[in-house]
Amino acid sequence: MAAKKKLLILAGDGIGPEVMQEVKRVIEWLALRQKAAFDVEDDLVGGCAYEAHGTPLADKTLARAMDADAVLLGAVGGPKWDSLPFEKKPERGLLKLRKEMELFANLRPAVVFDALAEASTLKTELVRGLDMVIVRELLGGMYFGEPRGIEALPGGGRRGVNTHVYTTAEIQRVARVAFELARKRTRKVCSVDKANVMEAGVLWREEVQKLRDGEFPDVQLSHMYADNCAMQLVRNPKQFDVIVTDNLFGDILSDCASMLTGSLGMLPSASLGAADAKGRCRALYEPVHGSAPDIAGTGKANPLATILSFAMCLRHSFDMAKEADRLEAAVKTVLAEGLRTPDIMQAGKQQVTTRAMGEAVLKALDKA
Ligand code: NAD
Ligand code: IPM
Ligand code: MN
């Protein structure tokens, strides 16, 4: 019998453990119904890891992540740890995981479920049927560029520095992911940069175009400035299919895209590394949202982004398309039945807690 797939769960801080609890119940459901059994381990990342080990990512945890077939992460951070030195901050734990696991491509799909088209703060006809993906570069640019830091100035005052930097190789590997993804969709990619003000943006644009012309002539490529893209996302989002962009723009534009789907609590993501000889790649699945300290502990968190991230995990890391389809269909069902956490609540619908939403997904799985 084949060895069970190793799944490492890092629930993290704030609402992280609350939303992850509902994924664990889905995992138990899969095991009980003999659909799939995983070798599941739990560990700490972020503020909780700092409390336990004095570091947001212990070496042992990193080693487990490197060894796992896939990692599921909830969220990290919170006001309690905001004034820690930079290297101790919860967010550094997540950034280190991404770096060490070499997860350079972050796929953030923004899909509007029919039942939620009216839950968006945007006009229904603008968002109904939206199905787009932001491919965010995850290991370069402003997040990791050197030099960086805060230094004292001789005459008083201080200077804060971050560096926006990209190489050909970094741009091309993420652009390749976007073009390959586009081939499975409508063969349309929009590359987003600030080539009008940044040299690294000029390079981004040139390298993406070069790759398209050389290897993906069948894919239609357009370029857009990031500020315009933010505007176009709320003006006419259905013009987009695949967007490829750098680390910082991708972070911002994906939070923006989440509101098209109704809530940040709906957006899943997959952070992927390069494929090995067997076509397998390191992968971490995480909702796009953070630890939501404002609602942590109140039962208001929407678990669907994390549940949908697990569906991406089933599909991409475990070749379980049938189970992934089934889980996504279950989410669709509970939304069609009118169940809503407060972030997607609409008049005439039934408001439920994190736990009740998770339970409803299990019931829908039972019926599917
Ligand atoms: P956030 O994403 O945590 O929250 C933004 C807003 O969205 C809040 O009002 C929150 O209540 C709401 N929200 C988020 N997720 C929700 C969900 N599942 N259901 C219902 N409502 C939800 O962003 P923030 O407040 O700017 O950051 C809080 C902390 O989270 C910070 O420490 C930040 O660094 C961290 N953060 C972590 C991640 C991550 O772990 N991947 C991502 C973003 C932010
Ligand atoms: C995200 C988050 C992270 C990021 C933080 C928590 C490091 O905002 O995953 O979107 O900025 O990448
Ligand atoms: Mn973010």
Description:
This protein has 368 residues and is of the alpha/beta class. The protein has 2 domains: 1-109 and 263-368, Isopropylmalate Dehydrogenase, CATH 3.40.718.10; 121-261, Isopropylmalate Dehydrogenase, CATH 3.40.718.10. It is built from 12 helices and 14 strands. The chain has a 10-stranded mixed sheet, sandwiched between helices. A two-stranded antiparallel sheet has the order 6-7. It has a two-stranded parallel sheet with strand order 13-14. Helix 10 (304-316) runs antiparallel to helix 11. The chain starts with a strand and ends with a helix. It binds nicotinamide-adenine-dinucleotide, 3-isopropylmalic acid (IPM) and manganese (II) ion. Manganese (II) ion binds at residues 251, 255.
